[in-house]
Write a structure and sequence with these properties.
about 110 residues; about 85% helix; mainly alpha
């Protein structure tokens, strides 16, 4: 039973990864592309790693999958946040934003 659920989770994870890759192609600017890639791929890879853990159990492969899952959830959002903030500062903002809190924060610090 665990193997069937694990394979189903891996399939769902791969589907989300494909959707994230399509988001990289279809989105108009870097901000949207990075958001699509980070959210879909983090969730998709996380679900696939949980599926691998369910299939293998508490073996060395399962423990490594859980460790990779923790590092994935810590590093992927942090890295994408750093990248988009550096892009924003380098290019003096992003046009056509509805709400720009970062600009307000940067102007207060000056």
């Amino acid at each position: 039973m665990n193997e069937i659920i694990g394979q189903l989770m891996i399939g769902i994870g791969l589907l989300f990864n494909v959707i994230g890759c399509l988001g990289l192609i279809r989105m108009p600017d870097l901000c949207c592309r990075l958001q699509a890639a980070t959210k879909c791929v983090t969730f998709g890879t996380g679900v696939a790693l949980l599926g691998a853990f369910l299939i293998s159990g508490f073996s060395s492969i399962g423990i490594k999958a859980l460790i990779c899952l923790v590092f994935l959830f810590l590093n992927s959002p942090t890295g994408s946040h750093s990248l988009i903030r550096a892009y924003y500062i380098r290019h003096k903002g992003v046009k056509n934003l509805v709400c720009d809190k970062l600009r307000e924060d940067l102007e207060e610090k000056k």
